[in-house]
Amino acid sequence: xxxxxxxxxxxxxxxxxxxxxxxxxxSDGESVAGAGGNGLTAKxxxxxxxxxxxxxALERAADAVIQIDSSETITFFxxxxxxxxxxxxxxxxxxxxxxxxxxxYHAAAExxxxxxxxxxGLEFEAxxxxxxxxxxxxxxxxxxxDRQMQ
Length: 150
Hints:
Radius of gyration: 20 Å
CATH superfamily of the largest domain: PAS domain
Structural class: alpha+beta
Shape: globular
Distance between the termini: 18 Å
Number of helices: 5
């Protein structure tokens, strides 16, 4: 998702009118429309604000932040990463991480991941878009998403 994308347009946050029009049910089957629906709307707005704040913090970080999923597909590439690697976000999102990192980075990184899914201070040679090679200090953090380590 591109920064600044309206979450409602992307269907990640339901339209406010739909929320208030739909009847919600609690876990015991009781209707919680009306004030409960407004509470849900407020919670969704707070989640959206928090999501946007966190996304902007990652986007504006001084260091390159790159997120890669379990299939090694690049899913996030911030402004600092664009400057460092010479690629635009659009050029790398959805591409394999080997576009910018050497093929052996994954195997070497796995050897350094601790029991908490973290590895820090790994030095690797990476490649810029123009082909020049440079050294990076890589920190990895594995997280569980939908019961899958990423």
